[in-house]
Each structure stands twice: as structure tokens, then as C-alpha cells.
Design goal:
Chain A contains no helices and twelve strands. Chain A is an all-beta fold and about 120 residues long. The radius of gyration of chain A is 14 Å and the shape is globular. Chain B has no helices and eleven strands. The chains are: A mainly beta (about 120), B mainly beta (about 110).
Chain lengths: ~120, ~110
């Protein structure tokens, strides 16, 4: 079974600086998707970024970028020029790309990293 | 474009009562997923449905929990005879297709069992 591990329960960063959140996963599959979701105090789950495992190029969305190391099964999130609105819990998630009848449906989440941003 | 809608946002039940949680997917989305988030935990998959079909219920407890997604109307997650351990945030997500598509989440329903 696949697992996702976020080893940093809490992180902090100063406004305008850069922070990296770690995520590792375990799978025997070769094709899958990886996601970072943000959960602010409102508890809404917001998609931050998505990466397809078959793509070597790291995904980027404005100030958010990932470092995807497939061999190491590592998927870290870098937030540049941090803003107060970035304060939230961040979840790393895995999803199989298997096209069987039932698999490839569930997102598997890590336990999350709480990011605080100070001015 | 309206996002995924869930209601109620907060639900309080006494032990032994029933809880009904509703989810309306995004327009054009025919795949619905339910997840549960316990305090200080990540989300855990419960069930995946398409219109009128349960595709994968491997994460849902066998007793007291049921889900449906009728041809018309929202998806319903039903918890019978609630216990204190059912207190959690329940999230619904939807996608246009199954494999490869991003799941978009609703705001969640926070269930408190007294």
C-alpha cells in the first residue's frame, strides 16, 4: 500500500523569505500523481500544485514550485516570497494512475505541515 | 462557476442520532469522493461514487455508514447511530473523470457528536 510522510509537523518563515516543506512517499507503482493542498483556518482544501510522475520537469505555479525526485520518492514544496496569506496547513497527497476499476481513485494524504508566517 | 457545495457546514448530533451530510459536485463533474479528517490528521478516503453507483467503498466502515449519489440531487453520506468517535470534518471532492483528474474539494462539514 502507498504511504505519504510529512516529517515536519510545523514550520515557520518570515514574510518575503523562502521556505521548503518536505514530503516523501512509498509506492511500487511507476505512474502516479502528486499534489500539494493548502488548508487555511477556514478548513477549505485548496489545490496548490500538481505533478505527473512521468514528467521530469518540476511543476511551478507562481510563487510555488516543487522539487520532484522520483528515484528518491521525494516531493518537496518551495514557497518563495512568503506572504501572510500563505499561513495554513499544507498536505502532500498521492494518487495512483492505475486505470483498473477501483484503483486510481483515492487520494492518500500525509499528516500535514502547519506553516506560520511572521511579519 | 460554483465550486463543490457541502451542507450543512456544522452539524451537532447526540449519540444514537442520525447524521446526513450533503454534497453537490461542481457543474460537469460526475465523480464524487468522500473523505474524513480527524483532529490533527490528514484526510482519509472513505468512498467513491458515480451517478447511481458506488465504485469504491473500501475506506468506509462497514456498519452505520452509507453513501449514495442519485441520478438527481446531491450525494449523501449517512451515518446512523452516531458515536463520539464519528466527530470529525467530512469533506467531499469532485472531478470530471476518474483517473488523472484533480479532485476539487468542498468546504467540509464539521460533525460534533455530544
Amino acid at each position: 500500500a502507498q504511504t505519504v510522510t510529512q516529517s515536519q509537523p510545523e514550520m515557520s518563515v518570515q514574510e518575503a523569505e523562502t521556505v521548503t516543506l518536505s514530503c516523501t512517499y512509498d509506492t511500487s507503482e511507476s505512474d502516479y500523481y502528486l499534489f500539494w493542498y493548502k488548508q487555511p483556518p477556514s478548513r477549505q482544501m485548496i489545490l496548490v500544485i500538481r505533478q505527473e510522475a512521468y514528467k521530469q520537469q518540476n511543476a511551478t505555479e507562481n510563487r510555488f514550485s516543487v522539487n520532484f525526485q522520483k528515484a528518491a520518492k521525494s516531493f518537496s514544496l518551495k514557497i518563495s516570497d512568503s506572504q501572510l496569506g500563505d499561513a495554513a496547513m499544507y498536505f502532500c497527497a498521492y494518487r495512483s494512475a492505475y486505470t483498473g476499476n477501483q484503483a486510481g481513485t483515492a487520494l492518500i494524504f500525509g499528516k500535514g505541515t502547519t506553516l506560520s508566517v511572521s511579519s | 462557476n460554483a465550486g463543490v457545495m457541502q451542507n450543512p457546514r456544522h452539524l451537532v448530533r447526540r449519540r444514537g442520532q442520525e447524521a446526513r451530510l450533503r454534497c453537490s459536485p461542481m457543474k460537469g463533474h460526475s465523480h464524487v469522493y468522500w473523505y474524513r479528517q480527524l483532529p490533527e490528521e490528514g484526510l482519509k478516503f472513505m468512498v467513491y461514487l458515480q451517478k447511481e453507483n458506488i465504485i469504491d467503498e473500501s475506506g468506509m466502515p462497514k456498519e452505520r455508514f452509507s453513501a449514495e449519489f442519485p441520478k438527481e440531487g446531491p450525494s449523501i453520506l449517512r451515518i446512523q447511530q452516531v458515536v463520539r468517535g464519528d466527530s470529525a470534518a467530512y469533506f467531499c471532492a469532485s472531478s470530471p473523470r476518474r483517473v488523472g483528474d484533480t479532485q476539487y474539494f468542498g468546504p467540509g462539514t464539521r460533525l460534533t457528536v455530544l
